[in-house]
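#struct-pred

JT: dropping the chains for the assembly here, can someone run the whole complex?
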Amino acid sequence: MSTKPELVKLIDTTLCTACRGCQVACKQWNEMPGLRTKQVGTYQNPPDLQWNTWTLMRFQEYRDDDGKFQWLFRKDGCMHCTDAACVKVCPSGALYHTPLKTVGIRRDKCIGCKECIAACPFDVPRHDAATDKVYKCDLCYSRIEQSVPPACVKSCITKALTIGPKDAMIKKAYARVAELGGDANVYGDKFVGGTHVIYVLQYKPEVYDELPVNPKVPLSVIVWKDLLKPLSLLTAGAAAAGVFIHYITHGPKTPHDDGQEQKGGE
Amino acid sequence: MNISRRGFLKMSGAVGGGVALSSLGFNLGPARAYADELNKMNRVRIAKQSTTICCYCSCGCGLVCSTDKATNKIINIEGDADHPINEGALCAKGAGFFQMTEANEHRLRKVLYRGPGGTAWEEKDWEWALPRMARLIKDTRDKNFIKRNAKGELVNRCEAIGHYGSSNVDNEECWLITTVARALGVVYMDHQARVCHSPSVGALAESFGRGSMTNHYIDMQNADVILIMGSNMAENHPMGFRWVTKAQERGAKVIHVDPRYTRTSARCDFHVPLRSGTDIAFLGGMISYIIENKKYFKEYVLNYTHASFIVDESFYFKDGLFSGYDAKKRKYSKDTWVYEYDANGVPRRDMTLTHPRTVFQIMRKHYSRYTLDKVSSITGVSKENLLKVYEIYSATGVPDKAGTECYALGWTQHTVGVENIRAMTLVQMLLGNVGIAGGGINAMRGEPNVQGSTDHAILYHILPGYLKTPPASLDTLDKYLKKYTPVSHDPKSANYYSNYPKFMVSLLKAWFDKAGTKDNDFGYSWLPKMDDGKHYSTMHMFDRMYEGKIKGFFCIGADNAVSSPNAGKVRKGLEKLDWLIGENIFDNETYQFWRAPGVDTKNIKTEVFLLPASASMEKEGSISNSGRWVQWKEKACDGPDQCIPVGEIEIKIMQAVKDLYAKEGGVHPEPILNLYWDYLDKDGHFSATKTAQRINGVFLEDTVIEDKAKGTKVVFKKGQLVPGFGNLQADGKTACGNWCISGSYTADGINKMKSRGKEDPTGLGLFPNWSFAWPVGRRILYNRCSVDLNGKPYNPKRNLLEWKDGKWVGDVPDGPWPPQAEKEGKYPFIMQRDGLGAFFGQGMADGPLPEHYEPLEGPLTKNPFSSQLINPAIEIFEGEMDKIERASEKFPYVITTYSCTEHWCSGALTRWQSWLLEAQPEQYIEMSDVLAKEKSIKNGERVKVSSVRGSVTAVAMVTQRLKPFTIEGKTVHQVGMPFNYGWLFPKDTKDDTTNFLTPTVGCANTFCPEYKAFMVNVEKL
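RK: done, full complex below.
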């Protein structure tokens, strides 16, 4: 197994045209439906990641300090963390690290506890009420494990999306940042043990909507994972464990459920 | 299927960092993936793989369809990694191709019928529908056929039947459509090319000799400067933009000039906003800048263009009008737009370019009026931005730099559509950018096969291969050929159209075969003739329909009730039809006009047939992309239920009509009964191959072709395919459905359109062995301009063509002759009578040099350039529904309309697809935050948009991407709306087509409608 390198997907936002080939290619390969949405005054649609939308193009109008206008495009989706909070909290083993170090999801094992949703520092996993399962990008594991690029990467017109061995991709990202200069930066390699999806950003991370500046595995998750979870799993069924984990990490709050309001769509 | 299994599985187009995953050094052995998903990969692997070409824009991207062998159903569609244009990548529409298959519940599956007064569709079948349609067609034709016109000229036409569509079917189907329509005598025949790129043909053919995109998408990577103007390329030709970014990687500068900041602007070096409809002012300023600052490529201008020709003394330009104008008719007589000739009939030239009547000096004087101040005041572009663009772009006027221009509907859809493009041809010829790698004018066409449907002339004014539709005054073939076969007395001019008789006679033979003989002019008299000076375009057709003069209408792969200008008038016209025959893969607002909002369904007498067609990947055949690549598609599976290809529908309808005429006789039966009609395979289905071979051309008799210069004789047998248009004959020995496409097969029957060779010997991305490119495999038109008079490349770093050891090396040369300096050498623009690039447009309807006029409906009451406010040569429609209100307080905002990446044209295909609809769910209007504040409109609020012709509702998208302009000292707001929405679907929509707003007016030359600049008001709902 030691011969399997880690894979990293690089999203170079400075090359993206927001054609949304990736957003649709993801649905095509993963056979996710399109739901009825509304126009609310933006190109961004669906408005957020959803159980049926694992990769989403975010559109943002931005004027920098020099008054220069830029329409920012950012493909959002699972970051495939090394220290993946979702994997840590998942009581059923549905979320797991694949041999390629990405975060996979075995949906048949998902018990719908939504714990991963609360724990994810990037707000990525989504729950669907109809199936009572959680959904997110698995970096097309069925493809990459057979050396075929993920659907999003293959569809990318301008090569804003690329995938390859971790070291090579990080090197490529830094080379690009050096070429761009200014506030350009690499996002993803320095936190949560390094993500397997990294960005080249033109501006500082705080400029971008819905992008955490300093994402962390919640302390409560670490406490739970290292101290309490093993004990809990010994004494309770997996479902009960999920409820318990949720309660001790967040109290009696229910994470949002994006399946409900979309029901009755196409 | 000739893509390799390896080729599909590697899918390596997108693997980054130059490292293929398969080279990562790990064993790919059995994985522990999630069972279902793993299963999908395996199901895809063992499926039948078929290649196809995307059916949306004209990039011509390749896709691979995986069809489950057990169910014969498509289970996956993704990009073809071996395809040189897209290398596996796809935009949103291409990536969602799967939702065009029968997996989409909205696909049409059965013949649908609606009888007079009917309130819903009834399901029928082909056996029922074919005889009924044939009866209606024959009765309408027989009753309304016009044998002779008012002048008594033989015209043999039927004005009571109209035809529209389609650029979204295969070449072979287009050719059958054009054939059926002409046999029926239809003259009101048009399709998407009219409303899309008809001005491209008018402009590019006038300047260069051919009407098509000069280069091709991949070639954009070779440019040093790319000007994107008249296009939102990243959104509407996404894969073309892939090659723009390739050029950027090399350090190319990319400039976007457009009323809106779009997804294109976001990736360009800079964006320059200009008011809709002022492109000629902008480009006129650039022409003047190039000339006055001596930025032009002098050697090129002298040797390869008309610049040195001397124009007749009687020509003049004064206060916005050229000589020869007749204000009553709104038409020019072009008698004074001529050159001086010497005693041998060769144009006189002044190689010093100083004679005041040289084309060069006339052009210089004309554009000296386009000062920075004036251009800035009209366009709303700052002087600083004007100079920035002019400087950067004109830096390509040197031998080793290439500048290209990419445009689309932003230039064509104007009353000055042709002249917008002509203005750019002037810029490109001055800078020596035509005929070189990384140069040219890239007319990025809007539909997947609009190049092909134009080549095959589903258009009233041309026959297949750009031959002219005969006018009534030319009553014999001899007169016709004399009129349209150009004569040049200049020995250096190849004047290739001197072969016109061979092309025309071969076309007539393709249609009428044995029945067309020398004695009966090969059937020339059977063709429908237009009245001289009359036009029969889309807008004219709907004008006539509105008047109740058109009784039957074919609408193939189109949605005029949404897409045609002044849609309110179009819909009223449809209500007056006796019958409508639709052919499509989804239902749309045109086919259901009888139950549109506000329509009195029960009182509409029209019989409507909606025939279910196979989708693009469900049939084989070829389509031609914008770069003239004629690419063959494989059939992945059958269409669902009763679906058959449009080609088969056409064959069956025509056969039913033929049978009726054979049985009953009728009016002018000759073109119907004599029509060669053998295009079914042995199983009785449409044969794209048989049709393609007929288009390519075939020897009808044993023929000996002698080349006296080479001293060779080649013998071809009867039935053998014609290996190229050079072999066509004017005596009836060859049949050829379209001379341009001749050479798509070898004489031995090898289909070059299927070629998938990836060799790239020049390193310029020409891919000479990939598909067939017309003409004769040439990838870059006018490529002999890329070399000097002795055949040496001007830019050795991008060596497109070179004369070496007595022969041409590189791209297929544009004409086989030696370089110009040699004794037998010829000029490079071989399709031009005079062999050279034309600055001076002698054939234009609205003047030989582009001149700025305001849109028909604009914000100004006075044109700052002249007393002519609007284009003096446009046709004004004056029906009760053709209102205009310019510079009015009631409609104060300039609007432009357009498409977006996620939808396509009227949205009649894409709105039925949930992945695309989810991303762009409903009608919106983009407006600046400044205007929104003025009108107290908040982002996301619903608004009403009105013009004097109608109104629509939309969601306000308040944005910083639009900005108010200062025009002639006043603030002018610009807004914009997509034209992708209609009332039929999605079901809960509250909106309808943007074309309720647009005026019935078009380009003076080609009647491409003005969708891009008119006036509206916006109010909060």
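JT: nice. Chain B is about 25% helix and 15% strand. The two ends of chain B are 56 Å apart (CA to CA).
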